[in-house]
């Protein structure tokens, strides 16, 4: 009998295959989708950029793992890398759009600020009160277009309010007006006066005249003077006044019979201060 007994041989179980590691590719695809969607909103350009970088790196790493046989989602990883690249591009575009919008907003604010204040330019003496005011202004050392009455004096008939952006508003002397039979805004027993307002855009930017408003007060107590509307007066400024062009509108106001003065206030828009004219009736 042999000293060593031969042991029986048993078949060995097959070695289980290594589990596929698809996490990188899947994560790259998810981050790429989120990054691309974020890139559609310019404000989130920073998020699209961060996710795009991560998705691109993970997608390329996942594709390399799939090539080595460690993953089975090569296509998913490639899609994630592509979406990551798209997210990066959209991030750059979004940043450009956002920064340009901010820059335009700053320029608009600067433009609005530069055109907000007005200086007084006396009339040429052709309108009531203009010659008197001109002499008064010259006596103070002022000149046309100077900033001599920005805070104190109210303009008179024929004077112009000249804004920093070279927008000029001029008002004529008041003229007695007889409202029509179907006029709106006129009270029986009151008097009516009309004025002509001219807007001269001597600046470099177009002016939206549709925002111009007019209000008036009459008499020593400053009673509100209603604007009169009929077939001859009551028109308003409309449209756009291009650089170098003018626009004209005629306003009529209802005043108490004993009123001796009419204060008319013209507000060009939200970016220009209102200017007032005190007119002698």
Automatic annotation (TrEMBL):
Q: Which domain of life is it from?
A: Bacteria
For this protein, the record's Pfam families field holds: DUF4352
Q: Which UniProt keywords apply?
A: Membrane, Signal, Transmembrane, Transmembrane helix
Segments carrying the region annotation (Disordered) are 111-157
Keyword Ligase belongs to the record:
no
Membrane-spanning regions, if any? Answer: 20-37, 43-63, 75-99
Keyword Signal in the entry? The reply is yes
Where's the DUF4352 domain?
164-273
State what protein this is by name: DUF4190 domain-containing protein
* Organism, scientific name: Streptomyces flavidovirens
């Amino acid at each position: 009998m042999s000293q060593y007994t031969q042991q029986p041989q048993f078949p060995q179980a097959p070695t289980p295959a290594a589990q596929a590691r698809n996490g990188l590719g899947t994560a790259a695809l998810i981050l790429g989708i989120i990054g691309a969607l974020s890139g559609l909103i310019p404000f989130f350009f920073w998020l699209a950029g961060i996710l795009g970088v991560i998705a691109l790196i993970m997608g390329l790493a996942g594709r390399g793992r799939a090539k080595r046989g460690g993953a089975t989602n090569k296509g998913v990883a490639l899609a994630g890398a592509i979406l990551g690249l798209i997210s990066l591009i959209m991030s750059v575009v979004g940043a450009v759009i956002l920064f340009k919008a901010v820059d335009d907003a700053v320029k608009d604010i600067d433009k609005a600020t530069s055109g907000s204040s007005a200086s007084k330019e006396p009339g040429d003496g052709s309108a009531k009160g203009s010659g008197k005011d001109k002499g008064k202004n010259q006596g103070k050392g002022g000149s046309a277009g100077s900033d001599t009455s920005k805070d104190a004096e109210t303009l008179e008939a024929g004077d112009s309010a000249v804004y920093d952006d070279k927008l000029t508003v001029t008002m004529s002397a008041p003229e007695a007006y007889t409202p029509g039979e179907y006029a709106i805004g006129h009270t029986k027993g009151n008097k009516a006066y009309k004025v002509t307002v001219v807007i001269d855009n001597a600046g470099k930017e177009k002016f939206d005249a549709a925002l111009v408003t007019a209000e008036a007060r009459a008499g020593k107590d400053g009673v509100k003077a209603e604007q009169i509307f009929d077939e001859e007066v009551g028109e308003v400024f409309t449209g756009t006044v291009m650089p170098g062009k003018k626009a004209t509108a005629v306003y009529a106001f209802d005043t108490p019979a004993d009123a001796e003065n009419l204060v008319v206030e013209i507000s060009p828009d939200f970016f220009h201060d209102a200017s007032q004219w005190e007119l002698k009736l």
